[in-house]
Amino acid sequence: MDRLESEGTYESIDVTGADFSDQHVTMVTISKSHLIKASFARTCLQRLDLTRVKLDECDVANATWERARLDKIKINECRLTGLNLSGAHVKEAVFQACEASFSNFRSAAFKKSRFVNCNLRGADFQDADLRGVVFENCNLRESQMSFAKLEGTDFRGSEIDDLRVGIESLRGAIVDPSQAAYLSGLMGLKVVY
Hints:
Layout lengths: L8 E3 L2 E3 L7 E3 L2 E8 L7 E3 L2 E8 L12 E3 L2 E3 L12 E3 L2 E3 L12 E3 L2 E3 L17 E3 L40 H10 L7
Parallel strand pairs: 1-4, 2-4, 3-5, 4-6, 6-7, 6-8, 7-9, 8-10, 9-11, 10-12, 12-13
């Protein structure tokens, strides 16, 4: 399998090493599938629907998956650099050990999702709904989170230096003591021990 069709439905497929690079299609549905070392680089998959899909070591760099729906997915050790998931609906997703610097998650809505050991440096989460999302041991340096909904978002253990976020947006976010000290400095507070 090396070709995706517009309005195509793919269920219970196990694919290793497929190359879907540079394809432009709409309304693709993939469910109950496992994709290993597949390339989706530079694809434009409008209204992509992934349900109960596992991606292992896939290349999704510079792909445009705007308004995608990702439900109960696991993305493991994938290259997501420059991925555009703006406006996506992401539910019960785990992103594990992914290279996702400069990815675009603008206006995306996340529910019960986790990023674990991911490089999200310079990622754009502006206006995203990240309530309850866990960022575990992630690099969030220089990431954009202006106007994001962050109540209950857990940043503990992640690098947040130069995080671009308004103080109001951080209301209700969960941070560890060193992050709290860093954020208080951004607010102009002097912490004395």
